[in-house]
Amino acid sequence: MKMVHESDLDLSDPIEFEFSASLSFDFAGVDAVFSIPADALPHFHLSRFAAEDEGRTEAPTERRLREEREKGRVARSQDLTNAVVLLGAVMGLYFTGGYMVNQCMQLFHRFFSESAFAQTSFQAEDLKSFVGTLFFEVFKICMPLFGISMFMGIVGNVVQVGGLFTVRPLFMPERLTPDFTRIIPSRRNFYLLLKTLVLVGIIGFTAYMVIMDDFIPMLKSAGMDTRQALVLFAHSAFKLLIVCAVLLLALAIPDYFYERFEYMENLKMDISEVKRERKEDFGDPLVRQRQRDRYFQLTRQRNMLKEVPKADVVITNPTHYAVALLYDPAVATGPRVIAKGQDWLAFEIKRIARENDVPIEENPEVARAIYSAVEVGREIPENLYRAVSLIFAKLDKFKAVRS
User: 11, 148, 154, 250 — which has fewest CB within 10 A?
Assistant: First the structure.
């Protein structure tokens, strides 16, 4: 590093800071650089912003989705569940409100009337009985509302993820690990912030409009009796709850689709992961390709062997090669190869030929030439006409035609 004196610096010149693999301070007109090792600088993982940043461009496979579902990780909007629960609770309150009010009035009359305090002394057993009875009566009053809310909560989750029950998340210690990505700027965090601001703004504005609609009657509630005032405030509260529940449900529907989008983005895979899963599920692609090729080869061979009984003659090596020829002047100008084989396949061709009384001629040169030059289903070339015609001339079928 080169030493620089203060007198050599021109402080009027602009100072430029540059961050790269190292940190450099470049003063104009002065050769002075201070470097920091690259591993000493903080690292930021851009993968928090998009799956493509780390090469995850492939949609998740069915196996990946199934494994995540078994772990309890599914595309689900908590806002949608909360909105359904709130809407169900409000409707339940509407239908059971009269029952709950009457039960509450009876409970107050039972425990807080003058007759309830006529007893001048209380023992421990009396206090225990009093508290137990009080809690039981409150539970009976609230039970319908609790039951409806629980049922709607189940409905809200089943609608989103279907019938899923798993306890595996309870035994996953990574869920207890702090997730610091929640405080780092990312697409999801910006969305959550925007969603919260929108919800607060809409709910706040709705509450203001509902309250202002009943504001004057509320001011006059001082001259009402207790029952009329309770009815007025209960009516306003119910209107506020039902409007908020409907608004939350309407806002939660797009939130569900966004949560599903984020879920699929987080589960995206790179090409190597997709290949590895396919290899684990279905085996090595090269092996499977060889198996398919072998299957098609055996199929072609079976179909070829079915044509051997139609042949006019089978020309053999005599042991290693066999070629079956068919000549039909109405269809082709020359003999056509309908089957050919080597070694065990040649043996099968000769066996089928014997079983079906197809003539077998031993001619090693002609058999090898046709096997090498002609594919199954093709006519023999003209340069083999003479050699093959000599073989056909020996056959009884063609002798009869010639005579």
Answer: 11
Top-confidence residue, 280 or 212: 212
* Sign of torsion over alpha carbons 210, 216, 222, 228: negative
| Amino acid letter for position 147 | G
From the number of C-beta atoms within 10 Å of its C-beta (0-12, 13-18, 19+), residue 280 rates as exposed
- Helix/strand/coil (H/E/C) assignment for every residue in 241-279: HHHHHHHHHHHHHHHHHHHHHHHHHHCCECHHHHHHHHH
Residue ranges per structural domain of the chain: 6-45, 74-115+126-268, 304-402
Residue with tokens 């684990």: 280
Categorize the per-residue pLDDT at 278 as very low, low, confident or very high, splitting at 50, 70 and 90: confident
State how far the Cα of 325 lies from the Cα of 78, in Å rounded to an integer.
75
Q: CA-CA distance, 342 to 354, in Å (whole number)?
A: 17
- Residue 26, H or E segment: strand 23-27
Q: How far apart are CA 233 and CA 47, in angstroms?
A: 51
Contact 229, 289 (CB under 8 A): no
Pairing of strands 360-362, 313-316: parallel
Owner of token pair 């090469």? 55
pLDDT at 118: 61
The whole-number average pLDDT for the span 312-339 is: 85
In tens, the pLDDT along 135-149 reads 888 888 888 888 888
**350-380 burial: b if 16+ Cβ within 10 Å, else e:** bebbeeeebbbbebeebbbbbbeebebeebb
pLDDT grade, residue 5 (50/70/90)? Answer: very low
Which amino acid, one-letter code, is at 133? T
H/E element, 17:
strand 15-19
